[in-house]
Amino acid sequence: MSGAEERRGPGSLAHRVPDLGALELLLAVARTGSLGAAARERGVSQPAASSRIRSMERQLGVALVDRSPRGSRLTDAGALVTDWARRIVEAAEAFDAGAQALRDRRDSRLRVAASMTIAEYLLPGWLLALRAGRPDTAVSLLAGNSTAVAERLLADEADLGFVEGLTVPAGLDSAVIAQDHLIVVTAPGHPWARRRGPLAAAELATTPLILRERGSGTRQVLDAALGGLARPLIELSSTTAVKASAVSGAGPAVLSELAVREELGLRRLVRIPVRDMSLGRDLRAVWRTGHRPTGPARELLSLTRG
User: What is the C-alpha separation between 52 and 103, in angstroms, rounded?
Assistant: First the structure.
C-alpha cells in the first residue's frame, strides 16, 4: 500500500477531523467573541471549553484562537477552519433532519396483524382510541388465522400481532391482554336447542360441526379439548362465515362468546351447555422476540389493557 493510500485508510478521518461538538464550540467562539460566552452557550465550563479548543489545535497542528483579557479572537487559520466547520455542522444538521424525517415516517404508520375474532370484535374499538391520540398514524390491518399472524410478524410484515391460540408461536414474545371462552351454538330449530341437560363432550366429538380452518386459534382450542377428534361438517376461514352458517341452520358451531353476543341476545342462535370440557383461552398480543413494541405499536398495546 502506498503512503497516500495509507493516509486515506479506513478510519483515518476520525483521527484528523475534530468531532462535531468541538466544531460547534469553535463556531460559538466566532459568534460570541468570547470563550466564556461560547462555553455558556454550549453548556460546558470555561476550563472545559478552553481544554477542548487546545485539544483541537493540537489535533490540527495550528493555532485557532488568540486569548487575551479582552476576549478571544480567531486567528487567520481559525477563521478559515471556522468557515469549513460551518459547512460540516450544516451538513450534520441536514443529516439529522433527514434521519428524523425517516423516524417520523416510520412512527406515522402501524402494521397490525390479527386473528379473525380479535380483528372483527376487539380491534375496531382499540383503533378508534388510538386514532384519538394519534390522528396522523396510518394503520394497516392484516386479518388471518393465528398461524398467518405469526408468519407476518416473523417476515417483518407487521409491527404488532394478536392471536388467540393455546401457545405462543416460536420466535415471538407475548403478553396476555384478555380472556375468552368458546361456546357451542346452534340455530333455535336444531334438536340440541331443546335439550334439558348439558351436552356430553363425547357427543360433541362425534357430531359434524361447522368449524374454523386448521391453524386458527379457535380450532386449536377445540381440537385440544376434544383430543383432536373434532369432526368438520364445513370448514370456513372466517368467524363471520361460521356464524352465518350456524344461523342458517346448517349445523352446530363452536365460536367465541365475543362473536355471538348479538345473535344470542336476538335468539338467532342458542347456547348449548357442554359438561366436562374447558374451552377457555387467552387472547395475546405478540411481537418478534427481541423487538419490544415502540411508538404507535406500544401505544396500541397499552390500549388493549385499558
Answer: 32
